[in-house]
Specification:
Strand content: 25-35%
Shape: globular
Radius of gyration: 20 Å
Distance between the termini: 17 Å
Structural class: alpha+beta
Number of strands: 9
Strand order of the largest sheet: 4-7-6-5-8-9
Helix content: 10-25%
Order of helices and strands: HEEEHHHHEEEEEE
Length: about 220
C-alpha cells in the first residue's frame, strides 16, 4: 500500500500494472509465484491485495521486502489509515443492525437488486431508500481525548443524538478524528456537537469524509 506500491510490485512481475485499475482483479505471477491480485486496499492509498498459496507466502513476502521502499506494517497503522480515508470496519461501523443506506453506502446495492429487493433485508433497504433514514454515518473532528467505539454523541444541550463507532488520533492531520451515527438533521458538516469520553463531554464538529484525500489508481 502507498504511492510506491506499484513500482515495488512492477519490479517483480511482467504484468503491465498501468492497465490494472482500482478494484480490477487479475491472476498473474509475482516473483515467479502464481497469485490473485486486486488493485485495492484498506488504506485509501493506491496498492494491491494479493492472495498467495500457503507454501509460497514466505517467499513472496521476502521478495516484496527485498524492494527498497517496502516495509512491514501492522494493524494499528492500517486502522488509522482506513479511518482517515473514511472506510468502514465491520463490527464497528457496519453490523447486522446498520444498513448500507444509513452508512452512506447505498451505491453498493446494484440496479437489479434495487428492482427486485429479493435478498435478506431487502424489505428494510427498500423502505429506507423510499422514505429515508433516521440516522446517518458522518465524520467528526474533536478536542480532548480521542473518542472510541460506543462514545456517546450529544447535542450542545446535552441530549444523546448518536454514538461513535470508530475513532482515534490521526497521524497525518495531528488531530482527533472519529466516525459514527448521528440523528438525521444533525448530520450537516459544520454542526457542533459533544463527544463523551470517560464522562467528559468534549467539543466536536461534524466533518465530511474522507478526512484525508484518497489516491486510488483509476487510470
Amino acid at each position: 500500500q502507498g504511492p510506491k506500491a506499484v513500482s515495488a510490485v512492477q519490479a517483480l512481475t511482467k504484468e503491465d500494472l498501468s492497465k490494472l485499475y482500482f478494484s480490477n482483479f487479475r491472476t498473474f505471477d509475482i516473483a515467479g509465484i502464481p497469485v490473485w491480485v486486486t488493485r485495492t486496499g484498506y488504506t485509501g492509498e493506491d496498492g494491491f491485495e494479493i492472495s498467495v498459496p500457503n507454501d509460497s507466502a514466505v517467499k513472496l513476502a521476502e521478495a516484496l521486502l527485498g524492494q527498497p521502499d517496502v516495509k512491514l506494517n501492522g494493524l494499528g497503522a492500517r486502522d488509522s489509515l482506513r479511518l482517515e480515508a473514511g472506510l468502514c470496519l465491520y463490527g464497528n461501523d457496519l453490523t447486522e443492525d446498520i444498513s448500507p443506506v444509513e452508512a452512506g453506502l447505498a451505491w453498493t446495492v446494484g440496479k437489479r437488486r434495487r428492482e427486485a429487493f429479493d435478498f435478506l433485508g431487502g424489505d428494510v433497504i427498500k423502505a429506507q431508500l423510499a422514505n429515508g433514514v433516521t440516522r446517518r454515518r458522518v465524520g467528526f473532528v474533536s478536542t480532548g481525548a480521542p473518542a472510541r467505539q460506543h462514545s456517546e454523541i450529544k447535542s450542545p444541550e446535552g441530549d444523546i443524538i448518536g454514538e461513535i463507532t470508530s475513532g482515534g488520533f490521526s497521524p497525518n492531520l495531528k488531530k482527533n478524528i472519529a466516525m459514527g451515527y448521528i440523528k438525521k438533521g444533525m448530520d450537516k458538516a459544520g454542526t457542533e456537537v459533544k463527544l463523551v469520553v470517560r464522562g467528559k463531554a468534549n467539543n466536536a464538529t461534524v466533518t465530511k469524509m474522507p478526512f484525508v484525500p484518497t489516491h486510488y489508481f483509476k487510470g
